[in-house]
UniProtKB/TrEMBL annotation:
CDD domains registered for this protein in UniProt: AAT_like
NCBIfam families xref list: DapC_gpp (TIGR03538)
Protein name: Succinyldiaminopimelate transaminase
Any matching Pfam family: Aminotran_1_2
Organism: Duganella guangzhouensis
Molecular function terms from GO: pyridoxal phosphate binding; succinyldiaminopimelate transaminase activity
Record InterPro entries: Aminotransferase_I/II_large, DapC_beta/gammaproteobac, LL-DAP_aminotransferase, PyrdxlP-dep_Trfase, PyrdxlP-dep_Trfase_major, PyrdxlP-dep_Trfase_small
Annotated transmembrane regions: none
Enzyme Commission numbers on file: 2.6.1.17
Uppermost EC category: transferase
Biological process (GO), any one: lysine biosynthetic process via diaminopimelate
Amino acid sequence: MNPLLDKLHSYPFEKLRLLFEQVTPNPQYKAISLGMGEPKHPTPAFIKQALIDNLDGLAVYPTTLGTPEMRAAIAGWLERRYDIPKLNPATQVLPVNGSREALFALAQAVIDKDANSLVISPNPFYQIYEGAAYLAGAEPYFVNSDPARNFGCDYDSIPEEVWKRVALLFVCSPGNPTGAVLSLTDWENLFALSERYGFIIASDECYSEIYFGDEPPLGAMEAAHKLGLTSIGEPYKRLVVFSSLSKRSNVPGLRSGFVAGDADVLKKFLLYRTYHGGAMSTSVQAASIAAWNDETHVEQNREMYCAKFNAITPLLQEVLDVELPDASFYLWADVTRTGLSDTEFAQRLYAEYNVTVLPGSYLAREAHGINPGANRIRMALVAETAEGLEAAQRIVKFCKSL
């Protein structure tokens, strides 16, 4: 067996299962889960219909590169959404079976396993970043999020001897679980570091369409364009961006996303994926094209999230230290004032009120002397508003009973 598999940590939901293993939840309450970030809003009917209308695609082998129509739809969406020059659909866009598998696969394609490389990850983080680093033969280097910096990472704190070993840097903006969005200054700093040390930036932007202010979150490509970096001979050099329809269009089971950016990186990544087996069914591509070409359902989806967060967040603020995030569908709450640790809070809430939340320490690693997820919980407000309000009311009761 591959010895690198022994470096992998249990997934957060496996840890949660073990935490709850000996607990019997209060039968007076119906189970409500805020633990998993799985969209629960209805899938738009027109996306379902586009899939049904193209089931003949199941009878053919798809190409790894995807159809020209699919790549054009993605390039068109990026141009409209971020007001950037249109990408070359033939060389700068690649459809993938959800951003999760592509984030993992990119590390395998770009890291030299014999180079003693490091992969920088935010902390807390999406656990795929860590696993991708280990199985590519690299080591993760965690940069803690700082509440005083709107949960941003202090990249200036990383010593030069670390930067010299970095092959890949994962960015998640809007962040999971914090909801933080990188600023233009943040991006300018990262682009300068990438230019100086030669590492690739992988920007995970799958929560980009769920936000609460008037301005949509800044994307990496948009930042590069605003900073004048797209006018040079090799636009988006060492930058690859990942996005997905799962959250934007409520189709997590469609497993449809894309990678876009540096044409040289994507050329090698396409070669890797040809062997890896990452081709997307043309039936799925047809449904995806319909989704990428429509914004009305995205606006309606965002309105539902805004109404939900605006109703639930003030309730929880009565008993927890929690703020409306920049974006994403998570609340990242500090439970310190309850006198319970994050794991104790989650276990007792489940036992007494049958509400599931995810302990923040399960989403982070101890780095530089602290676990930045400790004493926090992540709540995924993915269900309908009524269920979310019921969960919030139970949490308030629980906290007031302590």
